[in-house]
Amino acid sequence: ARLVESGGGSVQPGGSLRLSCATSGFTFSIYHMSWHRQSPGKERELVATINSSGRTEYNVDSVKGRFTVSRDDAKDTVYLQMNDLKSEDTGVYYCKADWPAIYWGQGTQVTVSS
């Protein structure tokens, strides 16, 4: 299995980024997927999940209303749209396949700074 994140970068506060996680090597459409992040000096945390039916949940209160997780089963890809970015959103963002097996991507850096 392979998960490759892209779309990270540097952005000013209030800006937007769209992260993509392209997958291969497993049947993406049946997998529950999630996005995690690790901010400097902090442990990795779960940000958002999307199940195989497209149901979404957001685990971090501060991202609710700003981040949107989605998936395209035709492209075997999961996305994280991030709007109104804040400095505290800075970190490495990881894509993860949660079920029925666990796979991690290598991460993509997001830096929010003026």
Structural commentary:
The chain has 114 residues and is an all-beta fold. The chain has no helices and 11 strands. The strands form 2 sheets. Strands 2, 4, 5, 6, 9, 10 and 11 form a 7-stranded mixed sheet that branches. Strands 1-3-8-7 form a 4-stranded antiparallel sheet, with no helix packed on it. β7 and β8 (77-82) form a beta hairpin. The model has no long low-confidence stretch (mean pLDDT 97).
In short:
The chain is 0% helix and 53% strand.
Number of helical elements: 0
What is the average of the pLDDT values?
97
Beta-strand level of the residues, as a percent range? over 45%
Helix/strand/pairing class, anyone?
Answer: mainly beta
The N- and C-terminal alpha carbons lie at a distance of 37 Å
Series of H and E elements: EEEEEEEEEEE
Radius of gyration (CA) equals 13 Å
Helix content: under 10%
Uncertain runs: none
Strands, total number: 11
Overall 3D shape: globular
* Largest β-sheet summary: 7 strands, mixed
What are the defining features of this structure?
114 residues; mainly beta; seven-stranded mixed beta sheet; four-stranded antiparallel beta sheet; 11 strands
Set down the secondary structure blueprint.
Blueprint: E1 2-6, E2 9-11, E3 17-24, E4 32-38, E5 45-50, E6 56-58, E7 67-72, E8 77-82, E9 91-99, E10 103-104, E11 108-112
Parallel strand pairs: 2-11
Antiparallel strand pairs: 1-3, 3-8, 4-5, 4-9, 5-6, 7-8, 9-10, 9-11
